[in-house]
């Protein structure tokens, strides 16, 4: 899963939590949410005299509208498509055409199409970088010419530098070299670096989501150089290109041989998201995490405890201060988050209102993510690095209940991961 996809998932959860909490009568925040829903779903702009949500949802009271808006955003944000391309791809295409004395790119044609053989965009960019590096270094004219002007302008634009003063020759102020040939060689090297490092532009819809979340949270605006969501959520640990940090169905079945296959299939993608998000990425960390959640979830066979939760009534150490809290906030998730206080803390971290909707914690995605949240907030990775199953068990359980079973899961996981 790419970083932007993880951030979109987190943003969707945040909006699902924040929008129902908008207070008072219809206000500017509702207008902002309405605008976002319309933009994400390609709906017409709201007429000036129409109140927020009218025309999007059937007539209802305001809390119902806000809940429906939250549900709509939770579904829409993860579906935002990636944008393929960058504003500089067109400028690079133009420069290559000038150097090759080719006609201008036809309107509607993608940059690089017709310059290189059919390929994906990263391949085209690599080919463009290699061509420009060679072509700029070997410009035959012994004097500055129009190509030098264009190369200088593009390097400055892609590097975020001010425009070249009109009285200054190309490359002056960029590089120091004894002659024009040396300047062109330096410009060629820089151009290759810049083109090779191009990333696709963000989708403007991601920027709208970012802005909405910041306003609802009373946070300062995103800085100009920040991509959407940066600063709102932490970056996930980079995964390897081959996906070796992910576990697969066969591995999970070997660790949990008594689990129902259909449940493991539903859990697997959310487990992998959790492992990435909470840096549970080494073989030993994965083994300990899966051993503990395997035991706590009855071998991955349930997302909530079998008991009613009545025994937790009025447990103030769990934050159960209201009648019915024990049953309402019984153990849920793969690591059995229990009690009003823990539900509130976990929901705040995951961007979901678990106080109003405690059953949500039993869904496959939050069952996994809540276990990762618990693992991270209790700082269990260092204990896994030390292979200390007893210490991890005591932190999770408060004692050593089920230690033998946890050891059995750990042994199977270690065999699976070659430890």
From TrEMBL:
Domain of life where this protein originates: Bacteria
Keywords, comma-separated and alphabetical: Hydrolase
GO BP annotations listed: cell wall macromolecule catabolic process; chitin catabolic process
Record GO terms (molecular function): chitinase activity
Domain named Glycoside hydrolase family 19 catalytic: residues: 288-381
UniProt xrefs under SUPFAM superfamilies: Lysozyme-like
Record-linked Pfam families: Glyco_hydro_19
InterPro entries hit by this protein: Cell_Wall_Dynamics_Protein, Glyco_hydro_19_cat, Lysozyme-like_dom_sf
Listed name of the protein: Glycoside hydrolase family 19 protein
Origin organism lineage: Bacteria, Bacillati, Cyanobacteriota, Cyanophyceae, Pseudanabaenales
